[in-house]
Each structure stands twice: as C-alpha cells, then as structure tokens.
Amino acid sequence: MKKTASKIYTGIIFAFLFAPIIILLIFSFNAGKSLSVFSGFSLRWYKELLNDANTLEALKNSLILAFSATTIAVVLGTMASVGINKLRSRWYRTTIDTVTNIPMTNPDIITGISLMLMFVFVGRLFGASTSLNFLTMLIAHVTFCLPYVILQVLPKLQQMDKSLAEAAMDLGCPPLRAFFKVELPEIMPGIITGAIMAFTMSLDDFVISYFTSGNGFQTLPIRIYGMTKKTVTPKMYALATIIFFVTLSLLLINNIVDNEDSQKLKEARRIQKGEKPEGDYHPGKRNAALALAGVIVVVLCVGAFSGSKGSKELNVYNWGEYISDGSEGSFDTIKEFEKWYEETYGEKIVVNYDTFASNEDMYNKISSGAVSYDIIIPSDYMIARMEKENMLLPLDFENIPNYQYIDDDFKGLYYDPDNQYTVPYTYGVVGVIYDANVVDKADIGDWDLLWNGKYANKIVQFNNSRDAFGTAMYKLGIDVNTTDTALWEKAHEEMIAQRPLVYSYVMDEIFNIMQSGEASIGAYYAGDYFTMMEDQADNVDLQFYYPEHTNMFIDAMCIPSCAQNKELAEIFINYMLSEEPAVANAEYTYYASPNSIVRENETYIEDMGEDVVEILYPEFDNFADEYNKYAYRTLDTEMLAYLNKLWETVKVN
Amino acid sequence: MKKIIELKNITKAFDGETVLNNISLDIYDNEFLTLLGPSGCGKTTLLRIISGFVQPDDGEIVFMGEDITDVPPHKRNVNTVFQKYALFPHLNVYENVAFPLREKKVPKDEIDKKVKEMLKLVMLSGFEKRNVTSLSGGQQQRVAIARALINHPKVLLLDEPLSALDLKLRKDMQQELKNIQKSTGITFVFVTHDQEEALSMSDTIVVMSEGVIQQIGTPVDIYNEPENAFVADFIGESNIIDGVMIKDGEARFSGQTFPCLDKGFAPKEPVDIVIRPEDVDIVPVEKGMLEGIVTSVTFMGVHYEIIVDVKGFKWMIQTTDFVDVDEHIGIFLEPDAIHVMKKSKYSGMFGDYSSFSDELEQLSVGGNEE
Q1: Does one domain contain both B42 and B143?
Q2: What residues of chain A lie within 8 A of the CB of B100, using their CB?
Q3: Which among A185, A272, A274 has the least Cβ separation from residue B90?
Q4: Nearest CA-CA partner of B234 in B367, B351, B347
Q5: The domain that contains B52 carries what CATH number?
Q6: Whether B88 and A166 lie within 8 Å, measured CB to CB
C-alpha cells in the first residue's frame, strides 16, 4: 500500500517535471502551426529552423559565447581553486569561498544590472561610444560561470592526496610540470563537470545577457524573448528540442564520468579491506564518454565559428518577428540587402540585426548609452518621447527618394508634425473580433458588443490599463488622451460594469482562447485577427469589424542619435521602401503598410486575398485627422499612476 | 665512512612555534639511519628539510660536500617514500615506476629494462599493467619503493612507510626494506615512532624529542646506555629512580647503596638510575637487596609483567617465575643491571609505574605523527 502510494507520488513528480518537455518535443514534429491540434508528423519546423539565418546566427553567438566563457572560466576557476586550496588560514579560506559564491547566489537581475552599470561607467571613463559588446558579455558570463567551476574543482583538490605533487617533484618534476602531470589528471573529473555546468549555464542565461549585450551580438535566449511580438513559432520548439537533447547527452556523459570515479573509489576501498575486486569495471567507458563530450563540443563550435565578418557594419534594432527573414521560403530582407548593397556600391556590408520585445525595452537599452544602433523601429508614442528627449536624428530625405511612395495620409502626424524624423513602416487598427457562430449579426458594429449582457463570460478584455480603458472611452465617446479625471472616473465605472461579463483579462493568450472558442468576443489588431483565423477550431468562425472610433498605431523607422553610420542607415531605409522588400515585409508581418507601392502591388493583393486587404486597410475620410484625434498618446507619469490605480480596482475587486 | 649528508645547526619554526632547535646531524654512506621520536618531535620536518619541501629558518644542509640548502626538491639527488605512498592513481604500476625515468627522457628500451628490474627487486613482476588503486597496501608500498629507487638516489627518505600496514605485513616489510637497503647500498633515512621497528632495522638511531636530538647511537647503545630519562623511557620499559652517585662504581637509591659499573660522575652527584624490568632478579625476601609488595600481575605470554611497590615507588619487573599479588618479594640487582644517567629536564617525568596501565601506554605510543 505504502509502496504504491510512493510510486504514484514519484509518478506525479516526474509527470510535472517532464510533461512540458514531452509536449514541446511532440509539437516540434507537428505538421501544422497550432498549439492544440496535432495535425501529423513532419520535420517541417526543423527544416525551417535550418533556413532561419537570424536564429542560427543567434545560436552561433550563444555557442561562441558559451564556449569562450567556459574555456576562460575553467582556466581561471582551476587556478583559483588551487590557490584557495593552498591557503593556510581557515578564516581566509572561508571568506574567499563565500565571496566567490556570491555571483551564484546573487539574483541574476542584480548581477546583470550591476555589470551593465560597471561596463557603461568604465566605457565612459575611456570615452568609448558604445561600451557593451561581445567582450562585456564574455566578462559577464565568465563572472557567473566561475563559481560553478570552483565549486566542482575545489572538492576534488581537497580530496586529493596532498603529497601527490610532492612525490612528482621528488621524482624530478619541476613544480608547474608536476601540477600538469599529476594533479591535473586527478582533478579532471571536477574540471569537466564544472565545464559542462558552466557551458549550460552560459548557453541558458537570459537575464544577465540581456543587460550586458551590446549591438550586433544577440544570444539565442534574447532572440527568443524578442519574438513575443508575435506568438513563438513551432520552429522554436524544434530548436528547444535539439538543445534539450544536447544538454541531456552532456549530462549523461558527466554522470558516466562521475559514476566511474566513485566506482574506482569503491573498488579501491574493497581491495584495501582485503576483498576481491569486482569484475565489471571498465575504465574504457569513461574515456569513451569523455571523447564523446569532446566531439559534441567541437562539432558545435566548428559550426559556430565558421562564417566570417565584413568590415562595414549597420546595426538594426527591430521588434522580434517583424521583418521577412527567409523562413518558409520568404524573402530574406537582410541577406538581400547585403547582396544588393555589394552589387550597387561594390563594397561589403554586414547588417547586425537585433530584436527587442517592447518599446520600453528598446528605450532603456538605447538610453543606457551602452549600445549604438543605426536604425530603430519604435511605435508612435515612443517616437514622440524620444524626439522630445533629442534621441533621434533628422533624416536626410535626399538619401531616401522612395519616401515619395509613402501615402500622404501618413505625413504630418502628431509624433512627427514636420516629417523630419520618421519613415512609417507598418500601421494597424484595433477592431473587434467575434465568433460568428455565437454572436448575433444584429449585435455587432460598435463597442457595445463588449458590454452586451447576452454574451456574459464570452468576452475577453485587454489585460493592460491603457487598452482596456480605451475600449470604454471609445464607447462613451471620451477623448482617450484627456487629463480630466472626472472623465476617467466615468470610464472606470464602465469598466466595473463590464467586469461580470468578462471571461478573462488577456494579452497574447487571446490567440488560444479565441481560436478554441473558449471566448467569443475580444478586441485586437486586424493583423493578429488573421493569425487567429488560420488556426481556429472547426466549430469557430472568427469575424472582424471596426467600431466607429478606435486606436491605431504606427511603427516607423528612425535613426537614433547614437547612430554611427547615418548615411548607410538612410540607404537601408530607402531600400526597405523599395518594392520587393516592402511587399515581402507586409506579407510577413500581416500588418498594413503605409507604402503605396505595396497597396498597388498585384501579387500582394493576390497573396493576401482581397478580403484580407479590405480588412487590413479600412477606409477613412481623413486618416491623419482620425489618427491624431483618437490614437493613444503618451500620458504623463502622474496620469499613468492615476490610471494604474483605477485599473487595480478593476482587477482586484 | 664517508659523510653523505651533513645537517648544520638546523632551526625551524612554524607560526612562532619552534619545531627544530639547532639540529646537527651527519648521515653516512650505506647507512640505515632512523629518526625516532613521538608525534610532534620534529622528525618528519627534518626529513622534509632533507628532501627540500621545507626550508629551514636557519642552518645549512650539505650534500656530498655541496651546500644544497637552496636547491629545490626536484633537483636533489634524494627520493622519498611517502607515508601514504602517493602513487599516481591515473597511471598503472609500470608507468608509476617509469615516471622518474620518463621525466629524465631516458630511452624507451632502457626504461623497460630498469622498470622490470625494479619490479623484480620489490617482487612485483607481472603487476605491470595493474591499476595502482587495485593493489593492496603492501603492494602499493612496494610500488612506491620501486619508484623511489629507480633513479638510484644517493639517499632514500622513508616517512613512516609502514604505519598503514597491519602488524604481520609490517614485520615482513621491515625485513624486506632492510634487505633492499643492503643489496642496493643506498643510504636509508627512516622516520618512525615505533621503537621496536627502529631497534630491529637501524644501523644508527637518532632519538628526538621537542625538536632536539636526545641521543645518537647504535640500537644496542641506545637501549643499554640511554642518555637521559626520555630516551630510557621511550626505548623499551624502564624503572627510573632518583639516586646519588656516591663515587665511581657505587650508587645509592631507594635507601640502599649498590655496586655498579658506571663512573665519571662528581662525588655525591644527583643522578637518574635506570633499571630495565628484565634485569631485575626476584629472590626470597631475606636474600633481597630491596623488599617490595606485588600489586599487580599481568600474563604476557613469554613472561609475567608485575608491578612491585618498593617504599612507595612502583617498579615494573618482567619475570618468568609466577608470583602472586600481595606477595612480599626480595629484589636483587647485578652491578651491570644498573645504569646511571646524568640529571636532565626529563628527570622525574618517566619511569614510575604508579599509574601504569597497558591501555594508557598504547594510547600514548599509538598516535601517528602527521
């Protein structure tokens, strides 16, 4: 009875530990895109992964970093362990032990921030324009890898017979040689374990890397994080599966080495007790395991280090999944630009393409002064803020002749009234998505649908104060940028009134909830509506309409004041406006394009479908007017605090 | 005989605590010399000074006429057998023994010849491919000796090499070590705290205590003519009694005057009298020079060990005749049973068996030196 119970308990624990990995593994072989439906076995996502140059570049960066950091950490860590082990004073030794362990016990975020501060500070001291680069990241990784190496090597040194080195010296070995010939082989298992731990730690780290990464060198975790603008694609499952198996095999190898070590020890004890040695002891297994580990690491690194760098560089900072990147046979914008540039100007160029997950992330990174990008693609309100803080450079439109194709609707908008700083990239309008199988045709058309008592518990609302209050204010006809708290109070009452009807407050979860039919009404961007529609369940029929007034966003290309190569950046912007890349990007992102070339392109309309184009590009009498009047603008800090307080009461009660 | 090593006024302190105090010692060619003393007497430190792992604070080490005080260990022509053998676990028996030759870049076939020769000497032929961790303690010991000898050092240093072996094996190894020393003609400097081991193996014994050499001599000298109460007590069992030298050949103790063979003391000089337990004859009370009461009797196999109270001082006597507890006996001493020593700082500390117990004795001798 007790045995069964403990077995069940163990089973549950294992299920919790491994279920996510197993699901990830299964869905990496899914033929379709859906998270919920397995539509057949296929290697599609693995193929796509291999074609995704940006992700492979990030993977390569991660491997280069992990390999370099591990090598340095192993050398320094072993040296440090030898030193600590030789300390005579117990107090001194414990102190040093504790101090070296701090990076391990310290929260990553503190290590990350403090390292970034230091790098920026030192960088400024030496007058460097950008202080974060590969080297700073490497230093950061060595910092947190070091304790893992010491933790593994030091005990091996302490267990080792102290007279081994003396014996070697006694037999004619100079001291350093004695260390390499006699002590090093003894502590090797510890060094290997430490190296494997350091390697996995470095490969896996996000938080510290995030704070210390500079331009042109993004690791895999940072890139995956940047993909959250859209949902993570299944090719990431494929990548995760591969990484999981590589890590697993490294761990297994490590265990074999360790196991053999303890077996050897046991064997020795048994013999000392005068017992007979057991027969099944194979020293060869360990060597084979070590060789295998070596092969894995070498293969990874050869793959990583192949590929070379040119001289001229352009640093682009964009949202994740926000440029056509060659996946699924699409146009590879960055590669094509590099090719085009070389053909046109006869010069090699390397584009370093990094991604961010939110406007605020981007802003923080740029304003830290630790990185320098030539092109950024923020959203409207962030552009307004950066402009006010003199963080943008005025563009030289001589270099951007294709600007003429930008629709006049997108000129003279509030964030750039004199058209000095920006070239719009995409725009989107918020509309209402509903399930036609549930919602009456008669009830649709305006914001009231989200307050319709008939659909209690079928409505989802934004899980963010600005967007959520926005829906209420459009419904009531209140200016969404007002500073009149009385009006905000009214919107607040409306929110409270809506609460009993709300199924859930969501952000990206809306995709799954709407696709599966759990909820039937929600507001989101038109571009995202199409993504949802693609994978909707059989009994769900998602439809879309624009209420009378609603929010719009525009993301635009700008050159930040930290740019190193303004002219090149302008050439890039101009290229982005030319037909092939502009169409490819519009098709890839599924957002509306302000570029008239795109709107008039026949393949684009054909590829997207006329009905889609119709929804993506709603008609406006006067777009600029509508936009300037109804789009969200940045609220000042006081208003934001006030709004968040109101929002708390909506969510808490 | 030729001097191989001369230690001149060696002084060493660790953390302000003096471990060796002005030690001077000559070590001769082809000699089996033992450094003997209890834990903490400085014998291992002295050995490590010879091998070069410890630098003396003061003094000089001369090796075959050459000052080697500042020569690092790997350049000294001495080799060490470590207490825990210090075999290299990642190398097999063959490679362990070949290690010093490989360091010297000796040609392969010569290495092979020498290693085989060495393994034969320590009776480990056929063990070449064995992993050293899979050997017994005695076998590991032999590998360590073979490894240390393969370079044919002038001097072999052995740091309590037998302490980890059990008694039977230890006896065999003692014999074997002695044989190896004789057949190779290499000078052995052997560190031990085991006086029996020292007596049975050595040509010369150096008795040390508290960082000072107490006595240097052959085993027979050390046993029969101990310099002071410490040596007398540490080597074998001794009754050490407070006495006065009346004149040459006449000593007075326990209220009696005894004829003895010692001379050369000042008249009426206070001295320590040593009487070995096996040198005491038990006779009927009326024939005895002294009279005592037996307080305990322990059967030891070859003999009985009895404690006798003589005027409040407890004597240990070893005898083959059985006497019973509380029996009154007479004690008779031949003149050559009495050994007279000058007073030293150890006087009065040893040689009284009032609180004797076997257990305590074992505890105080049995502790290994670090």
Answers
A1: yes
A2: 171-172
A3: A185
A4: B351
A5: 3.40.50.300
A6: no
Residue B365 within any structural domain of the chain: no
The ipTM, to two decimals, is 0.80
Q: Which residues of chain A does B51 touch, with a Cβ-Cβ cutoff of 8 Å?
A: 170
Min Cα distance B70 → chain A (Å) is 15
Residues A27-45: tens digit of each pLDDT: 888 887 766 677 788 888 8
Mean pLDDT by groups of 10 residues along chain A of 653 residues: 84 87 86 74 83 81 90 93 86 85 85 87 75 83 91 90 89 89 90 89 89 80 74 78 83 74 61 48 60 68 50 85 82 90 88 85 82 90 90 92 91 91 93 92 91 92 89 92 91 92 86 88 88 85 91 93 90 93 90 91 88 87 88 86 89 71
Question: Are B21 and B57 in a shared domain?
Answer: yes
Instruction: Identify the contact set of chain B against chain A, taking CB-CB distances under 8 A.
Output: 51, 53, 72-74, 78-80, 82-84, 86-90, 99-100, 103-104, 131, 133-137, 147-148, 151
In a domain, residue B83? The reply is yes
Structurally, chain B folds into a number of domains equal to 2
B137 min Cα distance to partner chain A (Å):
7
Question: pLDDT tier at B39 (50, 70, 90 boundaries)?
Answer: confident
Task: Determine the angle formed by the axes of helices A53-86 and A134-159, rounding to 10 degrees.
Answer: 40
Q: Between A184-204 and A235-272, two packed helices, what is the crossing angle to 10 degrees?
A: 160
Task: Give the pLDDT confidence score for residue B356 in this predicted structure.
Answer: 59
**Cβ separation A272–B136 shorter than 8 A:** yes
Nearest residue of A to residue B134, measured between CA atoms: A268
Nearest CA in chain B to A165: B86
- Annotate A501-530 with b (16+ C-beta within 10 A) or e (fewer): bbbebbeeebbbbbbbbbbbbbbbbbbbbb
Domain containing residue B271: 225-358
**Are residues B99 and A164, on separate chains, in Cβ contact within 8 Å?**
no
Identify whether the C-beta of residue B17 lies closer than 8 Å to the C-beta of residue B123.
Answer: no
* Nearest C-alpha in A relative to B51: A170
Between chains, do B137 and A272 touch, taking CB under 8 Å as contact? Answer: yes
How far from each other are the two terminal CA atoms of chain A, in whole angstroms? 46
C-alpha B32/C-alpha A173 separation (Å) is: 27
* pLDDT of amino acid B11: 92
Q: What does the angle CA A235 – CA A237 – CA A238 come to, to the nearest 5 degrees? A: 65
Instruction: Tell whether B49 and B155 lie within a shared domain.
Output: yes
Q: How confident is the model at residue B213 (pLDDT cuts 50, 70, 90)?
A: very high
**What pLDDT is attached to residue B93?**
92
Best mutation target among B74, B95, B97 (most A Cβ atoms within 10 Å) is B74
Last residue of a domain, one of B222, B249, B264: B222
CB pair distance less than 8 Å for B90 and A169? no
- 3-state SS track over A260-306: HHHHHHHHHHHHHCCCCCCCCCCHHHHHHHHHHHHHHHHHHHHHHHC
pLDDT digits (tens, 9 = 90+) for A434-489: 999 999 999 998 999 999 999 999 999 988 888 899 999 999 999 999 989 999 99
